[in-house]
Amino acid sequence: MKVCKFGGSSVADDIQVAKIRDIITADETRRIVVVSAPGKRHKDDTKVTDLLIECAGRCLSEKDHTEVLDEIVERYAVIQRGLNLDEAIVEEIRADLTARIARKEEISAACFMDAMKAAGEDNSARIVAEAFRKIGVPAEYVNPRDAGLLLSDDFGNAQLLPESYQNLEKALKDRDYLIIFPGFFGYTKAGEIATFPRGGSDITGSILAAAVKADVYENFTDVDAVYPVDPRHVPEVSVGISEMTYREMRELSYAGFGVFQDEAIIPAVKAQIPINIRNTNRPEAPGTMIVHHRRARQGSVVGIASSVGFCTLYIDKYMMNREVGFGRRLLQILEDEGISYEHMPSGIDNVSVVFREDNFTPEVEGRVRDHIMRELQPDNLQIERGTCLIMIVGEGLYYTPGMAAHATLALFREGISLDMMNQGSSEISMMFGVQSSHREAAVRALYHAFFKE
Question: 66: buried, middle or exposed (CB in 10 Å: 19+, 13-18, 0-12)?
């Protein structure tokens, strides 16, 4: 059995939904379909999820929401008309949205926002199921509540409850009809809708694949494969990655690969379900297979990823290594401000802490600086913003000498100085910190060093 997930671009309009029908009917082992909310049809278009967020915001602020509501309904009507479906499905969608809005006074603002956001995927699944029935394929929309997909009540950032796996296996396995399942959301034990973080349809697909012990989890998007580097930084990249491991994908996703939501890997990793990234628009392309283990050539790199928006805290103190509890106290100061760290390379008398700068306002920075000076009494303290992290990833890095030298030489030739360097304990990745203004030049230099020489 295969579980197939289709992203927003794959359900953006009637033409794309027709492609989904062709893909699913071409392989009888594709038995569970997870869908996102309709995405952009063109560059200047708006995703349905964004329209739903705007609609919910208007409702919460007591502003007129009818125009946005009509625009949302029209997005589904385009699919209905293009596939010649019964007009009743559009009226059902409007009624569903109206019922959600009517509950605004009954629930918290966070709960209401989740209920509205989830309507994108929920109604996408309803209309896709109708599209399959139109061509005579037995297909049923399955609601996550009926299937037992239970989440914590952390609205907007909900986590799966463990009993969901058994519930889902019982509800979904060995059905004699095609299952169409909405991504992105589930239900709390109190019966309220809660959503995963943005991009959570990938998570839903992975959870379902693990629950039913699928042979493959096919994740359909709008690219032929995962590329070894972001084409926006290196337009000349043309050959995708044919196979990579879960560990490689996790490292690359963390550092900015946007093809696959990194949290979505976790259920598949635990169940050892292979993940196949494929293109809805070119289903004949084999895509990228993400597996538990692969044979890697020594010294080979699978990908290079980069991500901006980091701060680096540098601390120097003579004899730091003799001071028991120094690192714990430093991290406690960051914890008190609600700051989690990403990396923490250190030396004998110095330590660097890398963290995301989203919430690191000047006020927070002042408090952190004062607290560190008072508590740890460093010889020198420096905070630098605008750090870009670049990850070089590959199982072939393991036990291969000279890889760091190869990377640093490539950066040196471009006149790019390093703020830091760190290698993970797994030895399948190297992390470099550079100024964000050098991001594109650094990525290009590393790509040509490892893939073009």
Answer: exposed
Residue ranges of E strands in 105-205: 139-141, 178-182, 185-187, 193-195
Cα separation, 444 vs 453, whole angstroms: 13
Close Cβ partners of 119 (under 8 Å, ≥ 6 residues apart): 52, 72, 96, 97, 100
Average pLDDT, the chain: 92
266-296 per-residue burial string, b: 16 or more CB within 10 A, e: under 16 = bbbbebebbbbbbbbbebeeebbbbbeeeeb
**DSSP labels, 388-410:** EEEEEE-GGGTT-TTHHHHHHHH
Express each pLDDT in 390-413 by its tens digit: 999 999 887 788 888 999 999 999
Q: How many CB atoms lie within 10 A of CB 339?
A: 20
- Alpha carbon 335 to chain centroid distance? 25
Tell which residue, 219, 214, 273, has the closest CA to residue 5. 219
C-alpha torsion 305→308→309→312, nearest 10: 80
| Range among 110-114, 359-363, 449-453 with highest mean pLDDT value | 110-114
For residues 88 and 90, give the distance between their C-alpha atoms in angstroms, rounded to a whole number. 5
- Taking each helix axis from N to C end, the angle separating 109-134 and 88-102, rounded to the nearest 10 degrees, works out to 170
Q: Distance between alpha carbon 359 and the CA centroid of its chain, in Å?
A: 20
The single-letter code of the amino acid at 268 is: A
For residue 234, which of 304, 288, 286 has the smallest C-alpha distance? 304
Q: How many CB atoms are located within 10 Å of the residue 358 CB?
A: 10
Residues 150/165, Cβ–Cβ less than 8 Å? no
- For the packed helices 109-134 and 66-82, what is the interaxial angle rounded to 10 degrees? 20
Q: How many Å apart are CA 11 and CA 18, to the nearest integer?
A: 9
- What's the pTM? 0.85
Give the pair of three-digit tokens for residue 383.
């905070």
Question: pLDDT tens for residues 334-375?
Answer: 999 899 888 888 889 999 999 898 888 899 999 999 999 999
